[in-house]
Design a protein that fits this description.
Elements (H helix, E strand, L loop, with lengths): L8 H11 L2 H8 L6 H11 L1 E3 L14 E3 L2 E3 L3 E6 L9 H11 L4 E4 L6 H7 L4 E5 L5 H13 L4 E5 L9 H6 L9 H8 L2 H9 L22 H8 L6 H11 L2 E7 L2 H9 L4 E4 L13 H12 L4 E5 L5 H10 L3 E4 L1 H33 L12 E3 L1
Parallel strand pairs: 4-5, 4-11, 5-6, 6-7, 7-8, 8-9, 9-10, 10-11
Antiparallel strand pairs: 1-12, 2-3
Length: about 375
């Protein structure tokens, strides 16, 4: 399979699986426990049907939206994800360049493999930083200060990772950051020489924003689940979140909100956005899909705060369904990580182009000339 044969997310997934060592692929692809929630995140969209209108004069459409204070060219952006240089040697650099080309938000994780400063200098399009609150308060303060210096546009505080999810695929494959050679993984690394040579002979792998404070993840191998459980602050609470919002002083998002009560509290502490998200099913298996929770959260706070539907999106029609319910925009991680692993920046650009074309085509087929034309009147649930 070649890049030009990748017409949807599943195609990119197959190509990524061929190009990555098993432990690295299964880190992207896997989730917690029985992976029920991971499957449910996408399946939730299948229980909702679109009802199109016709003869609407849709030769020209406008799919732009304003989210977290920035106008973006399409109602879909790239969620922050960790460890991107394990998936392709250019990592966040490739994804940032693709997002800028498509005029949409790009986010980097606290566990990014490129520094906040470099991303700040490399692109002018909207930049989001995903903050994991560590036990080391000096590290937390340093990351926020770096975001200010690099002129990031928003911070997303992740609120669903005070302990690591039970990622059984990673336990079976022995996946760690940095990767650790084991008898079980050695053959897979050997069978993917291009990936292995890039890993060994390109810039040394590191968690760029953490390495000056922590050995774990950069010089000391650790699973992501163990990292969350051992390194992150399990006392994180609403008071801390409000203090971080005040320290940052700009657009502030809470990532991992799934209940109406928490959505209302996000408004109360001055957040300007929430990401309705279950971390791609990688934390609490058995939790609901973001799309299934979206309507009640939009009804509660949608007139007060940006509501972003995050996770499970594999088609432009999924984006239209979330927008019709009332989401401000949508976001996702795996939808571009497969593409990054498959073909670097060119892969991310192709998957964004595919999804943008689907959104545009589906809006025309729905008779919607702009995002505000999409409403619940266009939906029916099975």
């Amino acid at each position: 399979m070649r890049l030009n044969d990748c017409h949807n997310i599943d195609d990119f997934r197959r190509l990524a699986r061929a190009r990555l060592p098993g432990p690295v692929f299964h880190y992207i692809d896997g989730a917690a426990d029985d992976e029920v929630t991971r499957r449910r995140n996408t399946a939730a969209y299948e229980s909702c049907d679109l009802v199109p209108n016709v003869l609407a004069g849709v030769e020209d459409i406008d799919m732009s939206v304003t989210v977290m204070g920035k106008r973006i060219a399409m109602p879909l952006f790239l969620s922050p994800t960790a460890l991107q240089r394990l998936f392709h040697w250019r990592g966040e650099r490739a994804v940032a360049a693709a997002a800028e080309k498509f005029g949409t938000w790009f986010g980097i994780s606290s566990l990014a493999t490129v520094s906040i400063a470099e991303i700040g200098q490399s692109i002018s399009s909207p930049k989001l930083f995903q903050l994991y609150v560590h036990k080391d308060k000096g590290l937390n303060a340093a990351m926020i200060a770096a975001c200010k210096a690099a002129k990031f546009d928003a911070i997303a505080l992740t609120v669903d990772t005070i302990v690591g999810g039970n990622r059984e695929r990673c336990l079976r494959t022995g996946f760690t950051s940095p990767p650790r050679l084991t008898p079980g993984s050695a053959l897979s690394f050997a069978m993917h020489p291009r990936w292995t040579l890039n890993y060994l002979f390109r810039d040394p792998f590191e968690l760029s924003n953490l390495k000056d404070y922590l050995d774990e993840g950069s010089r000391k191998s650790m699973s992501v689940g163990d990292y969350f459980t051992k390194m992150l602050d399990q006392s994180l609470d609403w008071k801390t979140a409000e203090a971080i919002r005040a320290d940052w002083g700009g657009q502030f998002c809470l990532k991992g909100i799934m209940s109406v009560e928490d959505a209302r509290r996000a408004v109360d502490i001055g957040a300007t956005a929430i990401m309705v998200s279950n971390h791609g099913g990688r934390q609490l298996d058995g939790s609901r899909a973001p799309f299934d929770q979206l309507a009640e959260i939009v009804d509660a706070v949608g007139d007060k705060i940006d509501v972003i539907c995050d996770g499970g999106i594999t088609r432009g029609s999924h984006v239209l369904k979330a927008l019709s319910v009332g989401a401000t925009a949508c976001s996702g991680g795996r939808l571009y990580l497969y593409a990054l692993a498959a073909a670097g920046q060119a892969g991310v650009e192709r998957t964004l182009g595919n999804l943008r074309s689907e959104i545009e085509r589906d809006m025309k087929l729905m008779g919607a000339r702009q995002v505000s034309d999409l409403t619940r009147a266009n939906l029916r649930w099975r």
